Amino acid sequence: MCRCEDVTLADLAHCVSRGYRDIEEVKRYTGFGTGPCQGKECLAVVATQLAKLTGQPPEAIPPFTSRPPLAPTPLRVLARDPGAHRFEDDQG
User: Fold this and answer.
1) pTM for the full model?
2) How many structural domains does the chain have?
3) Which of 12, 18, 29, 43 is exposed most, by the fewest CB atoms within 10 A?
């Protein structure tokens, strides 16, 4: 169903069996719609199947909220941080 995040119909059915019936909950549980396509390829398919699995009409399933990153962080910023290169078990 979601090729980017490898979410299958079985994953969706499992999600619904655990009580997740809202598209936002399903997105958070399975990760669908968070890959490179950002749901452009899978949203309609997942929403249709979610409607079937939950017994809701398809028009009752609203699309999930798109949330772009606040701001990209360049790796050079992290590389300059001396604290980023330390681990809890480091001595000194």
Assistant:
1) 0.69
2) 1
3) 18
